[in-house]
Amino acid sequence: MDEAIFKAYDIRGIYPDQLDETAAWKIGYATGQYLRSLLHGYERGMENSHAVCVGRDMRTHGESISKSLISGLRSSGADVIDIGMIDTPQMYFAINHLKTCGGIQVTASHNPANYNGFKISGLQAKPVSGDTGLKEIRHIASSLLHTKGNETGSFKQVDLTEQYKKHVLQFLDKNIKPLKIAIDASNGMAARMVPALFGDLPIDIIALNMTYDGTFKHEPNPLDEDNLKELKETVVAEEADAGVCFDGDADRLMVIDEKGRSVSCDLFTALMAPYFLEKHPGTTVIYDLRSSWVVREEIIAAGGTPRRERVGHSFMKKTLRDCHAAFGGELSGHFYYAANFHADSGMITFVHMLNLLSRSGKPVSEMIEPLRRYHGSGEINFKVSDKAKALKELKVRYSDGQYDDLDGVTIQYKDWWFNSRPSNTEPYLRLNVEAKTSELLSEKVAEISGLLNNIS
């Protein structure tokens, strides 16, 4: 088994070169052992406490990988509840709805079709990542010498579509106004879930890339502007109120305004903050440290408490829970909700977007324009051989600024700031810069890029 498939937040690799059925069995066995070892006291006596939910996305090798995973789980003594082909957020719902000890979603998210992987969650859908269980699962799996065992755990299949639909639609305003929305499902799980959840709403859905056979017209990554071209053109041509592009497993989305322009996810967080603070006055709103200054400003203006957090769903979810926050947003397109088991959901984010549009009666561009107060670089990647050295040099070079090391290096000045952090999933150093003027932004991006390129 190639241990390189164990990433910071999940397990992911190329099929079958890195991740195959043998690896899936071992990971299933290891996960079953690990999740059940976390049960304490009364939890052990609950009906489904020794059960693990398993779901998968639409990839062509997903079913075969899933079968081997399930065999490994059952051989470890874990019961298995197979909930079929689902979006990843439905897994978080299933774990809590069925009260299992955890769940595994077979998915490679936004990666190309030749990838597959596992997103593992524990009790209450708390994420199992590098620091919260993946290392232990890797150790158990890598020590297994065979893939044989008695499947002592029980097995059953359950369709939770109707229960999940009820859960998602509870957040929709009762008198939603008719809207025209272009939706690019990216040939991913949104292609299955959007019609199932929203097919009977008073929404004119213009559907793009709604097949889900494991092949992609474009890579299922909505953060890549090249992947949004068709959606943007459709929004303008069809005079839609907005556009939405989901990623492969439908836990993330990107919003497009009626003019065909992308709405960066930090600006969407800033737009959503007052909406949640109206319902939950004074509460905390979580945002990742790459986000625009405007996010903090909007949270404070709406009477909330802003909380910056490290990049990554495991950190965001834990902080959301620990701070009793109602809502959180990441630049990556993950949006988190206390009322959704402190987890992210593309479908629930879509519902809240519909509520905002319906209530305001304004075009998306008009709602977003006041938030475009600063000029941002977007995320720029640098291949740097010595990431620690590069970050140290940035800290020294900009030592006259306000420094913190919450995640990488963040330096703030009165009229600009930047964050540089090592990627947790790829061999890059990532840079985000924001400034009060476009001229200052260009100057600082060039300045820092030159420094990092010299190091690389």
From TrEMBL:
Question: What EC number(s) does its UniProt record assign?
Answer: 5.4.2.2
- Does the keyword Metal-binding belong to this entry? yes
- Please state what the protein is called: Phosphomannomutase/phosphoglucomutase
Instruction: Identify the residues that the record assigns to the Alpha-D-phosphohexomutase alpha/beta/alpha domain, covering every copy.
Output: 5-140, 163-260, 268-373
Family under the similarity heading: Belongs to the phosphohexose mutase family.
Read off the InterPro entries from this record: A-D-PHexomutase_a/b/a-I, A-D-PHexomutase_a/b/a-I/II/III, A-D-PHexomutase_a/b/a-II, A-D-PHexomutase_a/b/a-III, A-D-PHexomutase_C, A-D-PHexomutase_C_sf, A-D-PHexomutase_CS, Alpha-D-phosphohexomutase_SF
User: What gene, per UniProt, encodes this protein?
Assistant: algC
Q: What class of enzyme is it?
A: isomerase
Which keywords does UniProt give here? Answer: Isomerase, Magnesium, Metal-binding, Phosphoprotein
